[in-house]
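Researcher: Here's the sequence for the chain we discussed earlier.
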Amino acid sequence: MQRKRDREPVTVGLALTVGPALIGGIFTLAKQIHNTIETYCANQTDCIELNEHIYEVVGCLEHIQSDAQISKQLEQPMLTLQDCLIDCVTLLEKFTNASTIGQVLRSRHYKKEFENLITN
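Model: Thanks. This is the structure I predict for it:
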């Protein structure tokens, strides 16, 4: 099993986070994204769409959280999802930390990055 982000094998310590701990980490990242969007991006269509996609997936994870066998089967996809959510948090931090002028000047760049996150 490998992490999509760096193609490195998953370490024993990381593998132990699969299941409820990994799902909890995903929930935490999703909540962080949601809070950032609610605070800074309320009028941004891309932010709202990203938030909706994340919560569709999180809603599914809630159903498998208590089933260890399904959690084990979904290790790799959950690690990939976690990597994607980390990328989302990073992009949102860049976007929200930019000045209004910076957001306008780099709007095409941010639009492209948001589209990449939504389609991946």
